[in-house]
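Annex B. Sample input.
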Amino acid sequence: MLIVLSLFSAAGCHKPSVGKSLDIATTENKAAMAAATTFSAKAECDYNLDETALKAQGWTKTFEDDFTDNLTKWNVWNGGAFNNEWQLYRAENLQVLNGNLAITAAKQTVDGPTRPYDATPKTFQYVSGRIECKTNVSASVKTPKVRMAARIKLPAGYGLWPAFWSYGDPWPTQGEIDILEARGQEPTRYLTNYFYGNKPNTNLVRNGEGYIQANADLTQCYHVYEMVWEKNTLSTYLDGVLVEVKSGTYIPRMFGKTQRITLNLAVGGNFFTGLDPAQVTGGTMLVDWVKVFTSK
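Annex B, continued. Sample output.
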């Protein structure tokens, strides 16, 4: 999700701790987007994961939420966020319906806390939702391969920023892995990325971005987005097919670190340039399931 702040302890999704935000400068973000490599991918409408095949390959499922009941496996974000985003995250914009998590962003003027750890009132023009998993993940000596997967129907909507990612605190000393970041007005592509730093609020990674260009509109049906985290690589899969492998210098430094999976739908922010607020209305991100597998 580009830039976050250390809000929860690395042991899990607990109470936020106080810290400073550090947003990516707009000019730096423009340069990064321009430099990102594009990878072509074939999307398969309403694809679902073949767990039997994964098991035969040595993968063991360690976490699953099919969103058939409630959100007890997750912590709900309450407050504003970072990256100059426009929305207030709140529980009312998260619903478990018909076996899906529905995260809805809408245009609505409300007052809320500036950050989860900062109760200073702030007026927001949009509302949306964000959840962070209570179960941590870590590629380590014990589990050298971690496979994070989610089946998602992306929202179509100008200015919307859906994301499926993981990070740990204090950011970015535990690393951050962006499995999926998309712009609502660009329905056939999404971004992958990663961050790491050896001290809080200082990212060392450069040119970690990669664009996945699909051959179909990803907002029309469900697709499975996966990232396999290993000591030296981050491998991106779309609908069961490998489309990108990152092998940057700082990936090995994340090995043994602890992260938690996050799902959210932001509105506006540094991921965009020149947005017209008048065109931003809202939309819903549907998540069928989230699963984590590990392997030796």
